[in-house]
Amino acid sequence: MTLILTPNIPDPDGFYQELTDAQRDLDETTANDMNARLVLILANHIGDRTVLTEALKLAAP
Amino acid sequence: MFSTYDAPVYPYVQSAEQASGTPARHKVVVIGAGPVGLTAALDFAARGIPTVVLDDNNTVSVGSRAVCYAKRPLEIWDRLGVADRMIDKGVEWKLGKVFFGDRQVYQFDLLPEGGHKIPAFINLQQYYLEDYMVEAAAQNPLIDMRWKHKLISLRQEADHAVLTVETPDGVFVTSADWVIACDGANSDTRRMVGADFTGQFFQDRFLIADIVMKADFPTERWFWFDPPFHRNQSALLHKQSDNVWRLDFQLGWDTDPEVEKREENIIPRVKAMLPGVEFELEWASVYQFACRRIDQFRHGRVIFAGDAAHQVSPFGARGANTGVQDIDNLSWKLAAVLAGDADEALIDSYHEERAFAADDNILNSTRSTDFITPKNAASKRFRNAVLDLAEKASFARPLVNSGRLSTPTPYVSSSLNTPDAGIWQGKMAPGTLCSDAPVTVGGTPSWFLHQIGGGFTLLDFGTQATPVSVGGITAKVLRVGEDLEDAERLLAKRYDAQPGTVYLIRPDQHVAARWRSFNPVEAKAALARALAKG
């Protein structure tokens, strides 16, 4: 499997709103802590090491 | 302090060579009588090598120090006849608890695979282990233990090393075909040969304290991340023999080891960790650590083993455990070379295989260290996220790393291996340590590992294998169904055996080669290759 880089979320605006709403009232630290948990949860769901490595490379600054 | 153990004092005896002033030429001199040096003496003697051991002290380890001994070193000590006492005296724990902040995030039950003689590990104070091995060494006529003998200089010649040694009677000179340096992380021998010892230092300190608890306390391993009694640091509690408990407090870098070591500063830390528990302090020490290894395990006629060759963080108990496996790898090679049955290339394979293992250990212990002591805010955020999630979902638990217990590193790419042909299931690939299994021999229950390890073995699940020889080394046939019975069928299962399957097993109980049917030409070639004559 390779990292999906084409649109794959059926409801982009709805998802984006849910993501930002989830952190709307959070301070920086709390939001960052949540993001760390989210990364781990999603990484486990993906599971595929090749895909995870590709994602890390794409996200790197 | 030390209410539970009286350290023996071993007598200094002047050697005949020092008394007469006539230097002897020894086959092997081991420097250092710690767990690794003592294992070396016992293993070399078991393989017929007369061995002199020099130690600058005259007693066992001061303090419990290394307390966790893994399955493989215990199997090696079992081959050397000293493991039963250690296992009897040691403590086995099965339940581990992980705490984060003020709550337990999960617990785990170690459920080791059945059908092995030796447990996954035991906890035992290092001084007991050394004590038992010194006793065994004293009964072995091939071992010459010399206490209060300090190596002060070393000179290498083409085929031997010349050692200058200091004793209470002054200085004398001796020589040896081979010198095995087991003198620890601060090895003087390493400095004498000018070897590099490089790696990563960690800017952190740990306080370890042994306490005796006066009341019963469960035999469990407890690990705390950021506990309320010791904020922003980690702490560990686990049990040793004699109701002695090891406590481990991460201190951080900005602490004064001399101040932290004082009893009046330790007692409040223990009371905060174990409120209401009555205890006595036995021993304490403050340490910092590094992960590093020597450039070459062999420098001419000097061979390095244990912490003298590689240093790791304590997480995962990879120090002494790895050092003992160095000796397991070296002893049969040294015996073959001393007997003229192999060339020095076989000694060089010791570096190839054990440096590979050391790098694996350093990798694992560095990963544990980075989890326990995150190096920046982002790492700490992920570490805490893992711990938070571990409470709620099992997926996060394998990410929690409070030390990965030492397991043998397979020599997967060793030049001594004969690569597989054909398709195999299971773990017993060339370069891998042989798995144990229950067997019966002459109707009596025994263990597979007890049947191998004296020399090379051809384990035959068929009827065709015949002994093969290279030079003076012969691989003997051990036939399943004839020499031993695979009563529970676990041997065949673990070795993915079919009728006719044959394994070539090294004296250190590692797989050298395997085939689906026996061919004496292939077997002989594999034996030659395993002796670095390939």
Main sheet: strands, sense, barrel of chain A: none
Percent helix range of chain A: 55-70%
* Strand-residue proportion of chain A: under 5%
CATH architecture of the domain at 16-88 and 122-198 and 291-365 in chain B: 3-Layer(bba) Sandwich
- Shape estimate of chain A: globular
How many helical stretches of chain B? 13
Question: How is the secondary structure organized here?
Answer:
The complex is a heterodimer of chains A (61) and B (534).
Chain A: H1 12-21, H2 28-46, H3 49-59
Chain B: H1 16-20, E1 25-31, H2 35-46, E2 51-55, E3 68-70, H3 71-79, H4 83-89, E4 95-100, E5 103-109, E6 121-123, H5 126-138, E7 143-147, E8 150-156, E9 161-167, E10 170-181, H6 188-193, E11 197-201, E12 206-213, E13 220-225, E14 234-239, E15 244-250, H7 257-260, H8 263-273, E16 279-287, E17 290-294, E18 298-299, E19 302-304, E20 310-311, H9 320-338, H10 344-372, H11 377-392, E21 438-441, E22 444-447, E23 457-460, E24 468-470, E25 473-479, H12 490-494, E26 502-505, E27 511-515, H13 520-530
Helix pairs in contact in B: 2-5, 2-9, 3-4, 9-10
Can you walk me through this structure?
The complex is a heterodimer of chains A (61) and B (534). By secondary structure, chain A is an all-alpha fold. Chain A is built from three helices and no strands. Chain A has a domain at 26-61. Helix content of chain A is 66%, strand content 0%. The mean pLDDT of chain A is 97. Among the domains of chain B are: 16-88 and 122-198 and 291-365, FAD/NAD(P)-binding domain; 438-530, 3-Layer(aba) Sandwich (Glutaredoxin), CATH 3.40.30.120. Helices cover 28% and strands 27% of the residues of chain B. In chain B, strand 26 and strand 27 form a beta hairpin. Chain A binds chain B through residues 32-33, 36-37, 39-41, 44, and chain B through 381-382, 384-386, 388-389, 393, 395-396, 399.
